[in-house]
Amino acid sequence: MVGLVRTGTKNLRNLAVTVFFLTAPIFFAQANNVEEDSTETFKPGEMIMHHVQDTHEFHLWGELAMPLPVILWTDHGLDVFMSGGFYHGDGTVETSKGSYVMHHEKIYYAGVHGGEHGEAEEVHAAMPLDFSITRNVFSLLMSFALISWLFISIANSYKKRGSKSAPKGAQSFFEPIILFVRDDIVIPNIGEKKYEKYLPYILTLFFFIWINNLIGLVPFFPGGSNLSGNIAFTFTLSLLTYIIVQFSGNKAYWKHIFWMPGVPVPVRFILAPIELLGTVSKAFALMIRLFANITGGHIVVLSLASMVFLFKSYIVGGVVTPFVLFIMVLELLVAAIQAYVFALLTSLFIGMAVADDDHH
Asked: Is residue 216 within 8 Å of 225, Cβ to Cβ?
């Protein structure tokens, strides 16, 4: 028993130290910004929104930042340049195909309104089509490459050693998780006869959401991206699930939506639009649940960190830091839970669409 307690205490201490180094860039980066201009009033709302919203650069440490490619389709064709000019100098970028300013991370043609760094009360300028590699887009591409490399490597190891051989390396870590998704999420909700068709999609959903949630918890990897807290990201995943569910629906599924059996005919006309709206509300709930939980966790952590700079006290810092560590550890759990819930509900919706008539 004493050995278990010592082991648990050691693991908890190691976890706390790890989370501290993961969260330290939030404190020190903001501290550098405050020290640069002590007369400037610290605005926690602006700091929080800066870390949560998507940007065209990675803010790494203090004034250290990495610009990202800006890709615009303008009246004069394709225009590609780096985003550094928007954040330094007068905030205007001039190229051979035009001049541009940025206002709240949106790029406009310059010349219609002024203001340093494109800051104006109202923006009436025309906008080029923006296909830029923003912070979230870069995180999306990076997670896609990481997941592809991981699972291609795992698949190749199965081909070489066979499915019955003992797993090694990354395979030994991911195989239990893959089996958990298959045996405890997909098969119970879709059924043993039909689950194989949908298993690749649900596995991709689970790991894609989970890995991006974990990346978003590391402030300096890559620059504190918040992909899972982006409503466009969660909307796209929910839309894919909605399309797959509707195209997978069998005759019994659509019959229960448009012509509910077992109820009077006049009531069926009332239930049909309600049931049809229910199919949309399920996807909407998927989108909002993931977005709200991930964004809410980031805002709580950043709000607690802001208290240090609002009170400018080491005592407050000593009190707040344990709470930040606790929330960060909780966020590690939430990152996995949200991936699990999204995969579970997707499996449930697909299972309802493909179930036989006697199971509805």
From this structure: yes
Alpha-carbon distances of 29 from 128, 301, 358, rounded to whole Å: 33, 15, 60
Please state which of the ranges 17-26, 83-92, 167-176, 267-276 shows the lowest mean pLDDT. 17-26
Domain ranges of the chain: 69-132, 136-359
* pLDDT at position 22 over 70: no
Burial class of residue 211 in the structure, from the number of CB atoms within 10 Å of its CB (0-12 exposed, 13-18 middle, 19+ buried): buried
Give the integer Cα–Cα distance in Å for 160 and 105. Answer: 48
φ and ψ of 74, to 5 deg: -110, -175
Exposed e or buried b for every residue in 282-307, given b needs 16+ CB within 10 A? Answer: bbeebbebbbebbbebbebbbbbbbb
How far is C-alpha 183 from the chain's CA centre? 26
Take residue 292 and report the two structure tokens written for it. 């709200």
Contact 352, 253 (CB under 8 A): yes
Q: Please state, as a whole number, how many other Cβ atoms lie within 10 Å of the Cβ of residue 229.
A: 25
Locate the DSSP E strands across the chain: 57-61, 64-67, 69-74, 77-82, 92-95, 98-103, 106-109, 129-130
Given a contact cutoff of 8 angstroms between Cβ atoms, the answer to whether 338 and 290 are in contact is: yes
User: Number of helices (H) and strands (E), helices first, in the chain?
Assistant: 11, 8
End-to-end Cα separation, the chain, in angstroms: 51
- Asked if residue 141 has pLDDT above 70, the reply is yes
Residue 233 is predicted with a pLDDT of 92
For 252-269, how does the pLDDT look when each residue is reduced to its tens digit (9 = 90+)? 888 888 887 877 888 888
